[in-house]
Amino acid sequence: MMEYSNTDFRDSTFDIIYAQASISTVERRKILKEIKRILKPDGIFCAGEVVNLEKEVPLFITNLRDNFRD
């Protein structure tokens, strides 16, 4: 286990990094700096985040959010 903002990977290790629900945290700047460090210069960064586009949050999103709170 590693923190997203401080990994054990060498510089320019990955061709692609996919991050799901990890850059919407308070440490977003540190995490993005770490991603930039471990991503190869021509690498691809893909991020997926949960967003609320409606007033009422769907139940499955509420359950997901509640299960991953600190």
Describe the secondary structure blueprint for this structure.
Elements lengths: L13 E7 L7 H11 E10 L10 H9 L3
Parallel strand pairs: 1-2
Task: Give an account of the 3D structure.
It is a single chain. The chain is α+β, with helices and mostly antiparallel strands and 70 residues long. 29% of the residues lie in helices and 24% in strands. It has 2 helices and 2 strands, in the order βαβα. It has helices at 28-38, 59-67, and strands at 14-20, 39-48. It has a two-stranded parallel ribbon with strand order 1-2. The model has no long low-confidence stretch (mean pLDDT 85).
Order of strands, main sheet, comes to 1-2
Helix-strand sequence: EHEH
Indicate the radius of gyration in whole angstroms. Answer: 14 Å
On the 0 to 100 scale, the average pLDDT is 85
Amino- and carboxy-terminal Cα gap: 16 Å
Contiguous helical run count: 2
Q: Unreliable stretches, pLDDT < 50, 5 or more residues?
A: none
Specify the helix fraction band. 25-40%
- The general outline is elongated
Counted beta strands = 2
Summarize the main sheet.
Answer: 2 strands, parallel
Structural class: alpha+beta
Strand content: 15-25%
In short:
With 70 residues, the protein is α+β, with helices and mostly antiparallel strands. Helix content is 29%, strand content 24%.
